[in-house]
Amino acid sequence: MIKIGDKVKFLNDVGGGIVTGFLGKNMVQVENEDGFEVPYPLAKLINVDDPALNKGATPVVKAVVETVQQQVQEEKPKGKMVAGKDSPDFYFCFVPADAKNPLAGDIELILVNDSNFTVLFHYAHLKDGKYESVFHGEVPPNSDMELEVIDQNDLSDLPEYSFQLIYFRDGEREIQPSITKKFKVNPVKFYKEKSFQPNDFFHQNALVYQISENILTTEIDKMTEDDLRKVIKSKERQQPKLNLKKPVQPEIVEVDLHIHELIENTAGLTNKEILDLQMEKVEREMRQAIESGTKRIVFIHGVGQGVLKQEIAKLLKLKFPKYIFQDASFKEYGYGATMVIIRGR
After folding, report:
1. What does the longest C-alpha to C-alpha distance in the chain come to?
2. Is 79 helix (H, G, I), strand (E, B) or coil?
3. DSSP single-letter state for residue 57
4. Which of 44, 177, 209, 257 has the fewest CB atoms lying closer than 10 Å?
5. What is the DSSP letter of 197?
6. DSSP string, 104-116
7. Domains in the chain, start-ordered, CATH in brackets?
8. Alpha-carbon gap, residue 212 to 218, rounded angstroms
9. Can you tell me the distance from the alpha carbon of 6 to that of 153, in angstroms, rounded to the nearest whole number?
10. Which of the four pLDDT bands, split at 50, 70 and 90, describes residue 67?
């Protein structure tokens, strides 16, 4: 057992120090030889003052440290480059020992780096307006790192979780912008089995939050506040989804292609998969509008870099060449929508 005042050594780093405090259940504050206090996982410390380790000769402690260091080095993910993972996709995951009964055991909090970037991170708790540093380190490309472990007793007082991330690749010409993200997690989620879903990162179900927005989606989704207000108003005028199959003949149908309007969770989706979903929506809505006798259909795609707008134009020319399309009303949509004229007035 480690307590305040104990002398400890780091298992996967050189050096050690004196324990000056605890940062939750699994982290401690260690004052090193230079007088600096650093947070460190409790499980990765060895208590030099423990009589059980000092019994006999000092080399026993050294042997234990070297053995564990070797094991840690072997288990430490080295990361690898994967084709097609050039978007900075980072995730904050809650992984229970038993997803069917999350409260039956420990829940690991894990940072996932699903990209070809190397990530430097600072992980902290925000309580009562103050930040408490918990852990910092480096996550290699396409790997993950455990941040801490919680159990049922911790759910009554969950902090707001905070991340600061810097990501980079050797040989790049530009410096990538840093990422700051906070998460306020409702404890009720841990009492519901459906909160933990299958994912691409772990064998067991997990609660997954995306730290970084998908770059392609972010560019596509860039709209002014005025645009967003108009989209909300337009959605209020739309027929309920259950009535789409009824033989109605609306003058104009408006289709919002922003990905959060199409699916609830984009975790694990690549840029191409997101774009494919949006294009499937365009084709499906076009065919529905033609069958129902709709006169005009407006696809709201946002401004961004014009990626989605260009793909819509390609699809219309290829599969619906008989219909005229153009930029929708600037007054209503700015530059963020395309209108297709299906039949005249």
Report:
1. 96
2. coil
3. -
4. 177
5. B
6. GS-EEEEEEE-SS
7. 7-75 (2.30.30), 90-212 (2.60.40.1600), 218-341 (3.30.1370.110)
8. 10
9. 26
10. very low
Round to whole Å and give the CA distance between 320 and 67.
Answer: 67
Residue 175 structure tokens: 């410096």
Task: Let me know if 232 is exposed, middle or buried by CB neighbors in 10 A (0-12, 13-18, 19+).
Answer: exposed
Cα angle 288-291-297, degrees, rounded to a multiple of 5? 55
Instruction: Provide the sign of the torsion angle of the four alpha carbons 136, 266, 299, 283, taken in this order.
Output: positive
Residue with tokens 């153009």: 326
DSSP per-residue letters across 231-246 = HHHHHHHSPPGGGTTS
Q: In terms of Cα–Cα distance, which of 306, 269, 263 is closest to 87?
A: 269
Least confident of 92-96, 215-219, 245-249, 276-280: 215-219
Q: What are the DSSP E strand ranges found in the chain?
A: 7-10, 16-22, 27-32, 37-41, 45-47, 90-96, 107-113, 118-127, 130-139, 143-150, 160-168, 179-183, 207-210, 252-256, 296-300, 324-327, 337-341
